[in-house]
């Protein structure tokens, strides 16, 4: 996993977020008065999760739920199960959710949770027990009107189903709206699983049009082949782009004529990783950054595009499927080199957007068709990227700063209008 782990560039995830926030301050006028509210999380909960392992021993895991900002509505954001989860990371991820929900104008604040655990080392029964105990520990601060978790790296619809069931037990009745990304039979939404990858593709198409990049026959490289990366790769493949390299935690593969993504998906499902796939050549992990490409989709973890890698990257377009993949200093280099970056807070917002649709459907107990969901998703994403692009043109700034301007305006106007209690 070392090549996908956090690369220290003298700045951690929370500092990356703070640097992004600082860049927006000069554009906010009188609203900048309220900006400090975004420089700290509103509420932070650290929990101990004791787990009886299948062999009878007890292990303790550290879990978190951070509500970064609730000015515009209940907290919203995923739950990550990964060995590198810590408070700093969860704080940053919760803050990016605040910005993301505001860019899409969803009526939510931002939150995130996680447990420092390697889920691949647990049996299914252990995973269920861990999830149920963690849910119980954070249940005082979650709820359909308070804070609504969802999947993230290392979690999935089954885990959301256990969370919903456990929370419901504490309430004495079924509460489907407490989490999103649930299995469809438990109040989940059609289209949710594929929504994040779809959003990456849809915003990618819009950006490509703007910079006159033809998708057909363009070369795409994808880092991460989980829920987000595999769907984005599949959709680019369907649009006749060539996905020439893919990296996951088991290695990196390259095929200059394009990888058959459907075949790769099938292989990864069976082998839990792409290593050994016969439809491409294995290459060194670091060589990924030198592959000739038009579009790069980082869809793994944060802190991947360092200054040094930014100098090597040949892509014209970077689509941030992951949260926080680019260091601020690397951001500057890419922009200087004329690379267009569709930032995470819009590029990967398809997931939380369909989470919003799921929450609305749960509230109404009325469910939409997959077509309806995809149409609404595409419409919101296309509108959001058009708004961000217009702001970037107006302020002559990057798409990231433009997205932050739009989001911070919405959040800080809400803050101003609500006032500060007790005044
Ligand atoms: N974990 C996803 C994200 O980072 C989805 C969050 C959600 O659906 O609430 O955006």
TrEMBL record:
CDD domains, alphabetized: NAD_bind_1_Glu_DH
Glutamate/phenylalanine/leucine/valine/L-tryptophan dehydrogenase C-terminal domain span: 189-419
InterPro entries named among the record's database cross-references: Aminoacid_DH-like_N_sf, Glu/Leu/Phe/Val/Trp_DH, Glu/Leu/Phe/Val/Trp_DH_C, Glu/Leu/Phe/Val/Trp_DH_dimer, Glu/Leu/Phe/Val_DH_AS, Glu_DH, NAD(P)-bd_dom_sf, NAD_bind_Glu_DH
Annotated site, Important for catalysis, chain positions: 152
Binding positions for NAD(+) per the UniProt entry: 196, 227
Catalysed reactions, as listed in the record: L-glutamate + NADP(+) + H2O = 2-oxoglutarate + NH4(+) + NADPH + H(+)
Single Gene Ontology BP annotation: L-glutamate catabolic process
SMART domains membership: ELFV_dehydrog
Keywords for this protein: NAD, Nucleotide-binding, Oxidoreductase
Catalytic residues (positions): 112 (proton donor)
GO MF: glutamate dehydrogenase (NAD+) activity; glutamate dehydrogenase (NADP+) activity; nucleotide binding
Family: Belongs to the Glu/Leu/Phe/Val dehydrogenases family.
Function: Catalyzes the reversible oxidative deamination of glutamate to alpha-ketoglutarate and ammonia.
Protein name per its UniProtKB record: Glutamate dehydrogenase
Organism (species): Acinetobacter apis
């Amino acid at each position: 996993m070392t090549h996908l782990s956090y690369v220290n560039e003298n700045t951690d995830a929370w500092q990356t977020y703070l640097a992004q926030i600082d860049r927006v301050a000069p554009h906010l006028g009188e609203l900048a008065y309220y900006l400090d509210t975004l420089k700290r999380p509103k509420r932070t909960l650290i929990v101990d999760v004791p787990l009886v392992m299948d062999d009878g021993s007890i292990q303790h895991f550290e879990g978190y739920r951070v509500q970064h900002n609730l000015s515009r509505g209940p907290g919203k954001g995923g739950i990550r199960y990964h060995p590198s989860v810590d408070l700093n990371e969860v704080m940053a991820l919760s803050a990016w959710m605040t910005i993301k929900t505001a860019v899409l104008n969803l009526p939510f604040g931002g939150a995130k949770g996680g447990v420092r655990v390697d889920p691949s080392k647990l049996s299914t029964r252990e995973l269920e027990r861990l999830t149920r105990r963690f849910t119980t520990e954070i249940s005082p601060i979650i709820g359909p009107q308070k804070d609504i978790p969802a999947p993230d790296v290392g979690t999935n619809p089954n885990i959301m189903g256990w969370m919903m069931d456990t929370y419901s037990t504490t309430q004495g009745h079924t509460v489907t709206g407490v989490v999103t990304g649930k299995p469809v039979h438990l109040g989940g939404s059609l289209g949710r699983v594929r929504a994040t990858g779809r959003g990456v593709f849809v915003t990618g198409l819009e950006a490509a049009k703007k910079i006159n990049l033809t998708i057909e026959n363009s070369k795409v490289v994808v880092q991460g082949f989980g829920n987000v990366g595999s769907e984005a790769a599949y959709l680019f493949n369907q649009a006749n782009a060539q996905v020439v390299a893919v990296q996951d935690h088991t290695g990196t593969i390259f095929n200059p004529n394009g990888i058959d993504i459907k075949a790769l998906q099938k292989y990864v499902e069976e082998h839990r990783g792409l290593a050994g796939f016969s439809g491409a050549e294995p290459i060194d992990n670091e060589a990924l950054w030198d592959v000739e490409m038009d579009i790069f989709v980082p869809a793994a973890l944060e802190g991947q595009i360092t200054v040094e890698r930014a100098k090597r990257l040949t892509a014209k377009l970077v689509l941030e499927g992951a949260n926080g993949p680019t260091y601020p200093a690397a951001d500057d280099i890419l922009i200087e080199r004329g690379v267009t970056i569709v930032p995470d807070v819009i590029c990967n917002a398809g997931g939380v957007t369909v989470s919003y649709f799921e929450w609305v459907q749960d509230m109404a107990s009325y469910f939409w068709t997959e077509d309806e969901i995809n149409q609404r998703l595409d419409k919101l994403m296309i509108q959001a990227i058009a708004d961000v692009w217009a702001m970037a043109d107006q302020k002559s700034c990057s798409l990231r700063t433009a997205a932050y301007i739009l989001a911070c305006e919405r959040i800080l106007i809400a803050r101003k209008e609500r006032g500060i209690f007790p005044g």
